[in-house]
Fold this protein.
Amino acid sequence: MAAYVLRRVLWGIVLLALVSLLTFVVFYVLPSADPAQLRAGRNADPATLAQIRRSLGLDRPLTAQYWTFLTQLALHGNLGYSYYSQASVGSLIVDRLPATISLTLGAVVIWVAVAVPLGIVSAVRRGTWIDKLTTGGALLGISAPVYWLGLLALYLFADDIGKWPILPGAGSYVPFTDNPAKWFTSLILPWVVLAASFTAVYARLLRGNMIEALGEDYVRTARAKGLSERRVVWRHALRGAITPLVTLAGLDIGLLLGGAVLTETVFGIPGIGRLNYDAIVHADYPVIQGTVLVAACFVIVANIAVDVAYAYLDPRVREG
Amino acid sequence: MSDAVLRVEDLRVAFDTREGLVQAVDGVSWDVAPGRTLGIVGESGSGKTVAAMTAMGLLRGARVRTSGRVLLDGDELLTASPRRLQELRGTAIAMVFQDPLSALHPLLRVGAQIEEALRAHRSGVSRAIARARAIELLELVAIPDASRRVDAYPHELSGGMRQRAMIAMALANEPRVLIADEPTTALDVTVQRQILALLRRLRDELGMAMVLITHDLGVVAETADEVAVMYAGRIVEQAPAAELFAAPQHPYTWGLLRSMPRLDAPIGAELVPIPGRPPSLVHPPSGCRFHPRCPYVRERHREVDPPLEPLVGAGADGHRVACLLSEPERRAIWTRLAQGAPE
């Protein structure tokens, strides 16, 4: 297992190098906004532009720029400096991480806590009103775009613009270390909005898996043993049904830790996704490069974690 | 038999399907006494498994219609409350299934599955005691190195070992009745014999009543005291095992016997398959249900539905058959067939 993880980590590093090259090519080489132009202002003279180019290192050959980026990262862990704020990209990301982690983990807790019981109940009581309600609600949750849902939530419940102003609205995020209570209340709406579509997907998926598992021979055996129906469902059927969901949850968490761009933007949460969005708006190449790499890193780590978790959840995989 | 521990009386089970009402079991009665084995034989779809599963209460639902009675000592299982049924399962009546690989939970250790069966009915039993008992049970079913195998997952055991573990689990609470549904079908021939020998030993040691469901008359010959042959949801012939093999009465039983390879058959005798296919259970044939496949069919057989009736001849104690041919006719035909004559 250790050798397997090591091999996966090494592959992950190679993959990260490829991702960095791809991001570099997309933003530096292909035509997009000129960062020097953006910084110099609309009517800047060529001398100023050239001077800004020189100071940002944009006048050097592309290969040299990429090489500098790679060596700086590999040798010093340095992701470069923002064109926009002059701060180091590393420190910008570290500053933004807690917000993204808060948003992601809270949403995960909600969607798991809601989707698992819903999926189970609608599978066990298939065809009843509770199943129809869940399935219908799930369809709604899957179809509703997250930014629309976010705006709707703000319109209904935000304390500044809401019809029923009961919860802090956009831009109210407070770091946990500053004020835990405010941190919590400010994140309730974003958590619920972000969790909505995931809840829907997971509930539906679990419902399907549970229906399948409840028809398995081993569930019949569990009943024949004289186990209570609750134990049959929660231990035997669920155990067989949940493994694919754990895998999916791992990947989704990895993806979200790279920044929930839409949710963070709608609710003005200063997270990685927002940082990435702002960086694209400002053609802030080093920050784009950094956030993309961090996101890729999370996805790769999540993939490895999921594979390891899978081996623990399903003993049949372990021998492979 | 008045000392029966499990008694099925006029059991009928029908499934409501899109194609119509499927009468899977149509008026079946049998019973089994402690220390005895009833073999139920028939093709797939003859209703033998459905009857057993219904008795266990494993086939309840909106689309299942049952009638008749299933008596386990004092309890009527068809109408038992889910709670009572749950108490009886495992403790009074247990079941061993055909394919142990799918019937055991693939993600739980064998030992844990046995311990769970124990603790489900004895709330006071500690983990440690349950584990010790699980090892004991694995030893009882002759699994070598039981204290190590108790921590194995099903896929880490061989097919025979898995079925042994399955049996150990069924025996965890020393049930009075064990229903074994094709317990050897998924296994190699040599392993089949071992498992059957194990079941016989356990039946005798524990004084259990056993119901052995199989499509294989060979399995029944070795193990059963009494045999019921099922066809299209009904019992067509029922007799003590020795009697059934010595003087079978129903053309379907003849077909089963003649399609079974045996070492004591006359030299040159060929295996004869039963022509045709099992009938539809939505629209069963009129008259005798076996008539479309019966080589001895007469015009009358297409209209009259024969009841299961005891033989009158001497030495036929407890032998019953549902056939419209007369008893002397049947004896004459079987004598010819047993000597290897074609139909």
